[in-house]
Every structure is written in C-alpha cells, then in structure tokens.
Amino acid sequence: MKKRKIKRKKEVRINSGIKGFDDLVEGGFDEGSVNMIVGSSGSGKTIFALQFLMAGLKKGESCLYVTFEEKKEEFYDNMKNFGWDLSKYEKKGKFFFLEYSPEKVKVMIEEGGGEMESIVTRHKITRLVIDSVTSFALLFEDELEKREAALALFDIIRKWKCTSLLTLEEDPKERKGGSSSLEFEVDSIILLYFIRQKRKRKRFVEVLKMRGTKHSNEIHALEIGESGIEVSKEIYVNGID
Q1: I need a surface site. Which of 33, 188, 231, 240 has the fewest CB within 10 A?
Q2: pLDDT confidence of residue 237
Q3: DSSP of 183-238, one letter per residue?
Q4: Residue whose C-alpha is closest to residue 68's, from 135, 156, 158
Q5: Measured between alpha carbons, how far is 192 from 173 in angstroms, rounded to an integer?
Q6: Which residues are registered as beta bridge partners of 139?
Q7: Distance in angstroms (rounded) separating the CA atoms of residues 215 and 217
Q8: 21, 44, 35: which is closest to 129 by C-alpha?
Q9: DSSP letter assigned to residue 83
C-alpha cells in the first residue's frame, strides 16, 4: 500500500519594504507574526516600522499605527520627508493613526481588545505597528505581572492574525541577554545600533532571532536616505559588546 504524502502548509512571507533586509530573513516576516524592533533614540525604529506599513499601503493593504508618544500632525509632516503621504492613505480608508496611552493598552488587555480590536476587525488590518511598548512595560513593577501582561497582549494581537511590529526603546549594547519580559514572547527580535565611530555615528542592523527562519547572523550596515532605510551589504566586523 502506498504511503500517503502529507502536504505541509507553505509559510507566507510578508515583505518588510526595506531594501536589503528581506535577504537576511528568507524573504520577510512570517505572516501573522509578532516582531520587535529594539534600538536607542535615533537608531531608526519608527522609520523602520513606517516603511513596513508603507509597503503594505502601496499594495492596497489596510494598516494601523498605534503610538504612545507621537502627535498626528507633526508625525505626518515628518514622514513627508521620505515621500510618504499618510493623509492620502487615511482619506482612502487604508491608514489608521491611533494615539493611545499605556494605561489604555492595559484596559484593552482587560477588555480583550477594545478600540484597537474594533479598528483591526472592521477595516481588515493586515499590518500593525505599536510604537513603542517601552511605556507600557513600565506600568508593571513586578516581573511576573509584566510577563503575564505581555502574554495577554500578544495573545490578543495574534488573534487578529495581522503581521505586527512593536518598537522598544533600549540600547542593544546594554541588553542583558533579553531582560525584557516582552522579548520572550515575540517571534523575532531585530536590533538597531547607532554607534559612534571616531567623529561620526553609523547605523547597523542585527537579526537576533526569528523563529522558523534561517536568518543572517551578521551585523549589517544600514543607511537612512530620502526614501527611507536601506540595508547595505557592508558587514560590521569589529563586534559589538
């Protein structure tokens, strides 16, 4: 009797929209995954996240940007520097900007979704950015409570089945082996470095982990230009401690 062949479900990869980055991670983020972008101020976290959303908007997808710190008008003006007209996509009903306080996210977890879930389900959001989760993590003093809240947050996001990026304000060089409770629950961790070399600072990117992916283990240079972030083939060989 012939053995029955079991077909495995092919993973769907979501392009990041960042030139050169998808080559490091087998074509992009896993569909429906929760990913964390870690970097200090000026490293390019928000630009990385918006470029990911823009890649979706250009394909006709619906995208949601949730912020705890940015003001809408100023944010839209800043993004125009890269040629990204968010108001155009907002008028089309494709881009949604949501100002949230960390306390509201806490309430959202208790309610099991709240306003954010309403937007995601009603408008069929496929890409989600939360910028940043640093303030949210500071709401919890106890490490166990923080981890339980992180689990609840990610359970809600995964239920929505949209591919999401969460930014975390932290200097990757000062990390202590993944000390944040949030980091244990994400599917991937992308580190953005902003390092001073002599009289000039340079930016680099490292894929620390990405589940189910044979990703690059090298540290690559990246540039922020007029059209956003681009990862170069230049590899940082000095090592980052």
Answers
A1: 240
A2: 63
A3: HHH-SEEEEEEEEEETTEEEEEEEEEEETT-----S-EEEEEETTEEEEEEEE--S
A4: 135
A5: 10
A6: none
A7: 6
A8: 35
A9: T
Interval 118-173: pLDDT, tens: 999 999 999 999 998 888 888 888 888 888 888 888 899 999 999 999 999 999 98
Secondary structure (H, E, C), 92-145:
CCCEEEEECCHHHHHHHHHHCCHHHHHHHHHCCEEEEEEECCHHHHCCCCCHHH
CA torsion 230-231-233-234 (nearest 10°) is 100
The three-state (H, E, C) secondary structure of 12-67, written as one string: CEECCCCECCHHHCCCCEECCCEEEEEECCCCCHHHHHHHHHHHHHCCCCEEEEEE
CB 216 within 8 Å of CB 25? yes
Asked whether 60 and 191 are in contact (CB, 8 A), the reply is no
Q: Which amino acid is at 153?
A: L
> How many other C-beta atoms can be found within 10 angstroms of the C-beta atom of residue 134?
18
Class of residue 127 by CB neighbours under 10 A (exposed 0-12, middle 13-18, buried 19+): buried
- The DSSP call for residue 8 is P
pLDDT tens, position by position, 34-79: 999 999 999 999 999 999 999 999 999 999 999 988 899 999 999 9
Number of C-alpha atoms within 13 angstroms, CB side, residue 35?
A: 31
Query: Which pLDDT belongs to residue 184?
Result: 79
Structural domains of the chain sorted by starting position, each given as residue range(s) with its CATH number in brackets: 14-235 (3.40.50.300)
Give the residue from 56, 72, 75, 186 showing the smallest Cα distance to 123.
56
